[in-house]
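Audit log entry. Action: structure prediction of a protein-small molecule complex. Ligand: zinc ion. The ligand was supplied as SMILES and no pocket hint was given, so placement is left entirely to the predictor. Protonation state taken as written. Sequence taken verbatim from the request; no trimming, no tag removal. Recorded inputs:
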Amino acid sequence: MKQLISVKFLATMQNEQDVVKDAYVLFDDKIIEYGKLTEEKAQQFQNDKSVSIVNKVIDGKIIQANSVAFPAFVKGHGHDETCLIGLRKEDILTEWLDNVVNPFSKFIKENHEQLKKKLHDDPFKVVFRKCRLDDIQFGITTYLAHQCNYNKYYIDELVEANDEAGTRAVIAVGSQDRNFHKEILDTVDQAILRLDTAYGKHKDNKMATIIPGPDQDFSNSPEMLKAQKQWSREHEPHLLHIHSSEEKIATDLFTQRYGMTPIEYFHSIGMLDGNTFVAHQVQSTANDIKILRETQTPIINNPLANTILQSGVLNYKEVIENKIPYAVSTDGSGSADNQNILAACQLAFNFIRQQKGCPNAFKMLQRVTTSPAAILKQNVGTIQVGRQADFILFDCSKPYQACLTEENLLQMLLQKFVGNEITDLLCNGQFLLKDGKYGPRVQFDADKVINQVQIITDDFMEWMKQAEIIRETGVGWTMNK
Ligand SMILES: [Zn+2]
């Protein structure tokens, strides 16, 4: 069935000028057409029995939603294990991995059966459902989940939660074979088998794409990375994702120990090209920038996480002037506080203003729509005929949103909107949010998930009191030999 939505404004993000006032979008699972809703058009749609009108119709008139329609956001980098644990924000990244992130995953793994009984549910699936709620709330339909550390063992649970939520996942399957907690070190064969297994199981699922996601620059040997890059060359969509040059102390130590920067290391084993995209890259040398430019390796920048965890700020000026592809993302909820990707975009915008003058609003908003869609090779990111019908409705009735015009809409969206005005979110033409509430496509009870998450959190806090401290997952490797 075709559906029609009428809104006050529509920004397609195809180009800067494509903003329509008094607009409509006609869609099924894809965008069929859009434009200005003239009286003639409105009549035509009302007479067409194959079209279901989403808005109220009173006395034969379609009541326009006081909303801005905008492409759904695309998250280029995030983690689903960190959603519960906004703890110890005073830590720098590697301490925080040691103190919070990895103990949490270990806690769920070790107490899996007990938690399962208590929750009447799989605890990993509960966590992954919660992550989908976070994304949906902030208008994200398509995301990369980097399943790092203990999470690499739980790919099927994430795919199931993703299917239930009606979202679209690119899942980077983690690995590590050095400089890490020994309990989860892989051999190359184990890591490749994990990829083969996940790929084999889910390759027909149009909403879940499996790619290699070796965790960290320092935790994967050349043999491991070469094998994973080769695997990515042999499997659609040929992508590979890895953390790179995030924290200064770890990046400096890497460079000392191996005699090259992480980017020089990746390049030396032939890993960098448009299909390998790196997260963070806030510590770049001039030579790193040169390599990234020559290889056109995309960067996923996470300004909220990088500043909260004190890792640093991307050198936007150099990245932009060297025409290195980049997208803006949030990272996991533990490291970025929530999944407000518009807030991440606003922060990047303000950093760029400091470094090289005011960026264009359209180009900035592309960093959370069309840029990550292109990097992840997904048919989303614009409202455009033939694209998947993934879009947001922002309520625009707040006082700070007054004075919207076709000319200032993108600037207002970038600088004045908060990110929580989203009332409706569609993925493949199905409602993940409707009138400010989850569903009907979301197939689990959001309130129940929140309660279950509270139980896991309380038990985790108890467990932490006597847990053995793991000193090899984050900063720990820097202390070994
Ligand atoms: Zn990350």
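Audit: result stored. The chain has a mean pLDDT of 92. Residues 77, 79, 146, 243, 279, 331 surround zinc ion (CB under 6 Å).
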